TrEMBL record, chains A, B:
Keywords: CBS domain, Cell membrane, Magnesium, Membrane, Metal-binding, Transmembrane, Transmembrane helix, Transport. It is a multi-pass membrane protein. Acts as a magnesium transporter. GO terms for cellular component: plasma membrane. The keyword Magnesium applies. Homodimer. The chain crosses the membrane at residues 317-337, 349-370, 391-413, 419-440, 452-479. This is Magnesium transporter MgtE. Belongs to the SLC41A transporter family. One of its GO terms (molecular function) is metal ion binding. It is found in: Cell membrane; Membrane.
Length: 480, 480
């Protein structure tokens, strides 16, 4: 592709989305007119314009890569999304369904009848089918399984038997296998007969007659070695390989660490049963980092930004309800000190500063720890060391910023003892935030939970209740 | 690798780290003893044990892949990290330096003298050198540049001339180029003579005599096509390619979208100047998602979890200071209503509930929007639609949860009008949170800033001050 062509293509992902939206809007105007005027003659004209727009839109969409259509579908609100989907689904519904996110896929599948679903599914590979199966209606799956041959059916069943986060659910079955006792020349001739190689083929898998993996032959070695050599001489006999029941994210980290493109999956007996490829791993790495962000904010899952209000509510209610309880507890802590506040109303104005800065600082700590844990950089041996560092940071921040705010409190209310209480409370609450910022994710991880889970809600709960208690308690003891 | 071998290798990344730490601890005990006893005879024995430990440790480290050593270095506190670094740095300091994160790399480089740095750098490719250069002392770079040949020097210079986030800074120069007017047979023979192909070679670059990119020949096509065919017949003439001044993250998204392994980088005249590979793009995708998490929490950059207290402080101070100001403003809002609180002290206890739930809900909204923006799914056309949805979600949450908390307030304080004010304030503050959760990232993006930047601090600031104002304002109007 020359320079000019590239520029065009790259502008166009954004600009084509704009074009699609433009066409959809024109469409909407036309429909609005038709609806309002209702005259018969008028109607026919509008219908023509309508058709013309749709044809232009369809032509635009046909030029796009499936991944780009998927991108456009994700970025469109539900009604526009379905209009576009009607236009593209006849041809390449399968490809596109596999590219969109889970939440958007749901909205698209809901718009397809059994016949369309069946047609789309028939063109898929076993691993792709397994991906889609949980979202398909029961009778479609049933009918589908009957159209598959025994091997395909077995593969779909096997892929479905693993959890989403296991290697078995992500592997595909498109592998080129060879024997170790042939020459590279024979391998080259064999490949030529295949006419096409599966995507991401950077190595061939060497198996024995029982299908047991003996090694891999990287394409690079096949190309640079003397064709007279035997596969066994050239192959790598100790490749990184995976088991179907391993954690998929661990596999993704291995891909990242060792710069892999593809890797074999073997069963308990060392038999080759599938293959992992970098494209699936990249998706996984992105999803994992995203679910970390979402979990920290107390969102249950990835949300289609144009999801219905009801779906959004369900996604967010759980943590909001927990937050309601923690906020109520913080409120009761203040309730304990209502007498003190009545005597010195300045306390009511100053207490949110102590709580708020504690929350923010705790969020910084917990974010850093959760991230380090996701990268496997924190082990139990280093807990106390990490804790000491975080406490030191908190102490300095408390004395410095707490000092500043103490001076401000003195200037505002003219009481130096109030200023001292403020500084002390800030420091103590920052220490509490540091302590809990380390302990919460460590504890969650120790009891087998995701350390990011609602991290932000929990740390804020602690620093709110704790901050109010520390500040109002100190004030009651020393000021009243 | 058979099943047994794999299990071993996979256990060991975690367990080898444990072993390294165990050896380091034994080391420390020995050093402690030597220090305390100080007897000459004793000393010699300790030195022997000391040596023995180090030798064992060194042997363990030698078995590890550079990426695994990098992982161990990241997971160790500074003093242990430097002990391990002393043991490995002679052999493969270059490889390891390239694998560790920026912040850890800094600590390692600080521990090397110019001579060691020069030796490590001499084994690197031009793009790797450019990666490292900003962290090397001036005189090392100077001396290094003199040892390079003209082409290498030019490449380092060119890579250094781009920003970290541009394609030009990430491209490498290890490409296999061929001509379009030769047969595949000739290409195969040419490759065999090369003896080794660069990593991630999934395609060969077809250039003319001026070095202008004419197309790419995927290795897959090279393998399955008749060797008599010409390159021009088989090559893809419209590959996805990039410009050195393009945004690297856009390139990474294209790699993800089109499942690329490598892609050519061309200059303004279409001349091939380098290549991007998936491994760099995977790193970028991970870094981008991480910086999103960190930015939202108000951390300036990725932090070495064992960084010194001083470095941690610098990383966190900016946003803490901003938070101090926003907390102070929220406090002044309360100050406005001190009279009301004096009359009805229950207000002081209830107000953090309104602020807290608003903050949590706003964080959910802003997290979702920031994520969608990072994936390019939000365009200006959909702002109003998104806003309407978020407002609807907020309204329902406000009425439902606000209603619950209103009833609780009534039960606690026996005033139904206080309950109603509570419900109304919750609803209004949730609506404010939704509005700002959409507007803040959209506005940041419109003025060219990172929409994740301190998102959490900012939304909390709005919902705190806003929540206090709404609740205390309503209470003053209707209850007093």
């Amino acid at each position: 592709m020359t320079e000019v062509e590239i520029k065009k293509a790259q502008d166009s992902l954004q600009s084509r989305l704009a074009q699609v939206i433009e066409l959809l809007n024109r469409q909407r105007v036309v429909e609005g007119l038709t609806h309002r005027q209702d005259g018969q003659h008028q109607d026919r004209v509008e219908t023509l314009v309508h058709r013309q727009n749709l044809v232009e839109l369809q032509r635009k969409l046909e030029d796009l890569h499936s991944a780009d259509v998927a991108y456009i579908l994700e970025a469109l609100p539900l009604d526009d999304r379905l209009t576009v989907w009607q236009l593209v689904k006849a041809d390449r519904d399968g490809d596109i369904l596999l590219e969109v996110s889970d939440s958007v896929r749901e909205t698209l599948i809901a718009d397809m009848d059994d016949h369309e679903l069946l047609a789309a599914a028939k063109e898929m590979d076993a691993d792709e089918l397994a991906d889609l199966a949980p979202e398909l209606p029961r009778d479609v799956i049933h009918e589908l399984m009957e159209t598959l041959d025994a091997q395909q059916r077995e593969r779909v069943r096997s892929a479905l038997s693993y959890n989403e986060d296991q290697v078995g659910a992500l592997m595909d079955f498109e592998m080129v296998t060879i024997r170790e006792d042939v020459s590279l020349e024979v391998v080259l001739r064999y490949l030529r007969r295949l006419k096409e190689l599966p995507g991401h083929t950077d190595k061939l898998f060497v198996v024995d007659y029982d299908g047991v993996l003996k090694g891999v032959l990287p394409i690079k070695r096949l190309l640079v070695n003397d064709p007279e050599k035997q596969v066994a001489e050239v192959m790598a006999s100790d490749p990184v390989s995976f088991h179907p029941d391993e954690d998929a994210y661990d596999a993704a980290q291995a891909f990242e660490r060792y710069d892999l493109i593809s890797a074999p999956v073997v069963d308990k007996n060392g038999k080759l049963i599938g293959r992992l490829t970098i494209d699936e791993m990249v998706d996984l790495i992105r999803e994992e980092s995203e679910s970390e962000v979402l979990n920290m904010a107390g969102l249950r899952e990835e949300e289609d930004i144009f999801a219905s209000v009801w779906k959004s509510l369900r996604n967010r209610w759980a943590w909001l309800a927990i937050n309601l309880i923690t906020a109520f507890l913080a409120s009761r802590v203040i309730g304990l000190f209502e007498g003190s506040i009545e005597k010195l109303v300045a306390l009511a104005a100053l207490m949110p500063i102590v709580a708020g800065i504690g929350g923010n600082s705790g969020n910084q700590t917990i974010t850093m720890i959760v991230r380090a844990m996701a990268l496997d950089q924190v082990n139990t041996g280093s807990t106390s060391r990490l804790m000491r560092k975080e406490l030191a940071v908190a102490l300095i921040n408390g004395v410095v910023w707490g000092g500043v705010i103490g001076v401000v409190a003195y200037l505002l209310y003219g009481s130096w003892s109030l200023g001292v209480v403020m500084t002390a409370a800030m420091t103590l609450n920052l220490l509490l935030a540091a302590l809990m910022g380390v302990l919460i994710p460590m504890t969650l991880s120790r009891i087998g939970r995701d350390p990011a889970m609602g991290a932000s809600v929990m740390i804020t709960a602690v620093t709110d209740s704790g901050g109010f208690f520390i500040f109002l308690g100190l004030a009651t003891l020393f000021l009243l």
